[in-house]
Amino acid sequence: MSRFIAFDVETPNYYNNRMSAIGITVIEDGAIVDEFYSLVNPEQRFDAFNIDLTGIDEEMVANAPKFPQLWKEIEPIMSSGLLVAHNAVFDMNVLKKCLRDYRINWKPYARYTCTVQLGRRLYPGMSHRLNDDCERLGISLNHHQADSDSRACAEILLRYLKQGADIRQYIRTCSFNK
What we know:
The chain is an alpha/beta fold and about 180 residues long. It has a single domain, classed as 2-Layer Sandwich (Nucleotidyltransferase, domain 5). Helix content is about 40%, strand content about 20%. The protein contains seven helices and six strands. The chain has helices at about 50-55, 60, 65-80, 90-100, 115-120, 130-135, 145-160, and strands at about 5-10, 20-30, 30-40, 80-85, 110-115, 170-175. α5 packs parallel to α7.
């Protein structure tokens, strides 16, 4: 496996069924080769908690693309390698809900791995919150900013791979069947 698509999403409210931002960092042959970031108009209200956490509000996303429009641009990237996220269940579920709610057919399933799960195996008994992993590994982070979080996830994965981590046993499948 030589191509990984690290991604991170921010959400506008506690429903976690829409994106307000997405960051994507592409790893190929052991190096970061591309990055993508976009705000997303979630067409939903924002909770104060999420605004405080991410700094993103309704006004910022008013002219941002809606998910179906953005998906046309990012789908080729998202289809081009193994998906990776830090606490991947969250990000994969938001993606799944966006695809479902906008009735976008992608593919029956996507394979992914989670840097939290890898970290728990490599560093048992430690916290694996993104900011803690970044501090421990000396990785720059502007937390809860999708571009910074996806870049940090990619850098964590690269560190784990350089340490000899075998991710094959940590590859999971997310089904997109209705």
